[in-house]
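Ligand-bound model needed. coenzyme A.
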Amino acid sequence: MEGITLDIDALKISLLKGKEKDIVYIHGSGCDATLWEKQLEDVGGYAIDLPNHGQSCAAEIRDISDYAYFVAKAVKKLMGSAVIVGHSLGGAVAQKIYIEYPKVVKALVLVGTGARLRVLPEILKLLKEKPEEAAKMVSKYAFSNEALADEFSRIFAERARVLRLDLSLCDKFDLLEDYRSGKLKIDVPTLLVVGEKDALTPVKYSEFFKNHIPSAEMVMIQEAGHMVMLEKSEEFNRALKNFVERLQ
Ligand code: COA
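Prediction:
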């Protein structure tokens, strides 16, 4: 896997590159591009480090649209348009890219995410006061696999500040009414992937998309939690490949 850096405005934005494919992956809260290593190897494409994450530079980020701006610019520079895959917060970013920069979106893959992403107030409070406890709690909710939950509990504790920023942005993200009223209509091919045991963005959030996005196909992966691309990478990659192959 190759690391590449793009200059976007005054910022260095870092990406990991797998096999050549017009797919761009966006990670969730407190994560980075390495989350998608198994997809980059097996399916291909580029995984971005959002500003303030991984190897990308720091930036003042006020809302999800600010993240969408940097990803859309990266897609334009790299290939013009791409299949945008977003997990959790990354799925909110993907929806904003579709709304604000539709030309860069060939198709959407919304993974363990929702049209509204309210966060348990207890998590936000703990992140401020007791970051290690909060990191443990988020990891426990995020994984159905205990070993991965322990590993990520350490990672999230080290990144408590950025995790808190990301989750507070998620908490404000809300497109539910836009979908319900028909103001927002997604009309590109869309794949929904969700872990059966997702405790942070439950299956009903994906079912809501399924009912409001005419083209949406939904794949629910058994025995997986919120971090479905890590916990069940083979099943996840099979669903993604099947979707992407049918686009060409
Ligand atoms: N898609 C479809 N429906 C949604 C939705 C979504 N993305 N988000 C919320 N809703 C629905 C809920 O199901 C609920 O419907 P109901 O009244 O029929 O049960 C309604 O909208 C209101 O729910 P919500 O916005 O979640 O507010 P709440 O005050 O009921 O609960 C939380 C707030 C934080 C307790 C709750 O959102 C939760 O448990 N979140 C998951 C845990 C978490 O922190 N996730 C992090 C996501 S990044």
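The chain has one domain: 2-117+174-247.
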